[in-house]
């Protein structure tokens, strides 16, 4: 087994290895309101989890409410974050057949998928509206807050998914390339 010689570098060279001589502009215009909301909710959840860990293991006296709040924040993050995926065309899909079809057939198929998505998100919004009416006044276990806050947030996520799906449908009808095709160009991260 041969080893490639590694040129040793100093600690100072290592510290400056990631510096870039050119300042690059940061484009925040690609982010929408749900992106920033999910970011804030994520850090709120991270703070709750850290607080739970710290009080349980450092103080040996756990705060009971941190687990419930963190779990509820996770639910809200998932459904509001799903609206981000709809906007960017990044939801998981089985696209084996899709890749082998001709471009006109793919475009028709994408419009059909857009319509099915709109109907699904709108139907889920309606179901959640009915569900919140039934159980929205229940209280959380450890915090005296209505569970409806979480359910209304999930409802808002589905309404936002419906609106983003409508927006994608309009874009797919107007532009030369579909939202899905544009998302494929961005690679696996979508950003």
UniProtKB/TrEMBL annotation:
* Residue ranges of domain Tripartite ATP-independent periplasmic transporters DctQ component in the record: 45-174
Q: Name one Pfam family in it.
A: DctQ
Bilayer-crossing regions: 36-57, 69-88, 108-129, 149-166
Query: What UniProt keywords are attached to this protein's entry?
Result: Cell inner membrane, Cell membrane, Membrane, Transmembrane, Transmembrane helix, Transport
- Tell me where in or outside the cell this protein is found: Cell inner membrane
Q: What is this entry's stated membrane topology? A: Multi-pass membrane protein
Q: Which domain of life is it from?
A: Bacteria
Q: Which InterPro entries match?
A: DctQ, TRAP_DctQ
Indicate the family of this protein: Belongs to the TRAP transporter small permease family.
Describe its assembly.
The complex comprises the extracytoplasmic solute receptor protein and the two transmembrane proteins.
Q: Report the protein's function.
A: Part of the tripartite ATP-independent periplasmic (TRAP) transport system.
Q: What is this protein called?
A: TRAP transporter small permease protein
| Lineage start | Bacteria, Pseudomonadati, Pseudomonadota, Alphaproteobacteria, Rhodobacterales
């Amino acid at each position: 087994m041969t080893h490639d010689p590694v040129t040793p570098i100093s600690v100072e060279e290592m510290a400056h290895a990631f510096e870039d001589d050119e300042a690059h502009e940061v484009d925040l215009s690609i982010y929408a309101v749900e992106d920033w909301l999910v970011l804030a909710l994520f850090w709120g959840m991270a703070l709750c989890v850290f607080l739970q860990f710290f009080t349980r293991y450092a103080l040996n006296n756990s705060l009971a409410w941190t687990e419930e709040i963190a779990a509820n924040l996770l639910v809200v993050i998932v459904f509001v974050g799903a609206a981000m995926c709809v906007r960017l065309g990044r939801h998981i899909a089985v696209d084996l057949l899709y890749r082998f079809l001709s471009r006109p057939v793919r475009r028709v198929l994408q419009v059909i998928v857009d319509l099915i998505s709109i109907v699904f998100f709108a139907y889920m919004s309606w179901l959640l509206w009915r569900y919140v009416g039934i159980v929205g006044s229940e209280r959380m276990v450890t915090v005296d807050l209505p569970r409806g806050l979480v359910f209304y947030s999930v409802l808002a996520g589905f309404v936002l998914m419906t609106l983003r799906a409508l927006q994608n449908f309009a874009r797919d009808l107007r532009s030369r390339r579909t939202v899905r095709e544009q998302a494929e160009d961005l690679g696996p991260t979508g950003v």
